Amino acid sequence: EYDSDSAFLEAEISHLKDPPYGHTDNSTIQGGMQLNHRIQDFIIGTNVLTAGLEYIVDDIVDSIPHYNYGTNQKTTNKAAFLQSDWQISRAFTFLAGVRADKHNLLDRAIFSPRLSLLYRLRNYTQFRLTWGTGFRAPEAFDADMHIAFAGGGVSRISLDVNLKEERSNSLSGSVNFDMPQEKYIFGFTLEGFYTRLTDAFYLQPVGADDLGEQFVKRNGPGATVKGVTLELRANYNKMAQLEAGFTLQSSLHAEAVENIDGLEAKREFLRSPNDYGYMVLMLFPAPKINISVNSVYTGSMLQAKFSPDESMASNEYRTASSYT
Question: Which fold has domain 25-320?
């Protein structure tokens, strides 16, 4: 509230001169090529060989002068990939591939292999086993540019000068079943997954200034993400269709990491639910009419809460309730 119109006008002018919001300019260029060659008689069975190149440029300038915050980042990534998709028989397919990436923020190229074996049991059931590796470059991502209001100010994220890439090593296995009938089809996919992260990214608090809390993105000792997903699907006579999925997972750092100064270090990932799911129901009562009902479920998750004044209330961990 203001005592007079002149006081309000003065505050408005001050706000417009130094607004608490900023400007983002982001441009992305992506190009590539891919060649496929089918070999009909490859030892046994057929093989489709694939080779390709990819080039990505991402340029972003994000600044909020009021909070003394800014990001000016240009990244480039050159990649080449090779893949062999070998259909050994009607029952077995073996896929092998490798991708090489040269990111401008990395001193060396990173090679990411991938293997997958598919087994078809009769006409309705498939079993798949997959292993692969990947990485995330030591760059600022969308989440790092998000400024959260906390503790009466803002929390800002910067990158550690020694930040290196995060590597992943993943293994998954799944069974896929689909049973078609004259008027309906139903099926499910059950998948288990295990991912080991090396040098996993995490945010370490480094104190506060007049504008709020500050965090540095650093490499942690590692982390493991594992779980199981069940997906269900059904369609009745093209009049009703249902798709649903549910995931149970665990996301833990190899060692406890600090999230807020003064609070106990935790192994659990913050804001990462251990269970979540979705459901989509579509009805087709008439040729030009369809009805869709969607639902998303997010389980409870651990959060870190900043206190505006620690003399009145302490920083603390909270468990956010599940919601739909």
Answer: Maltoporin; Chain A (2.40.170)
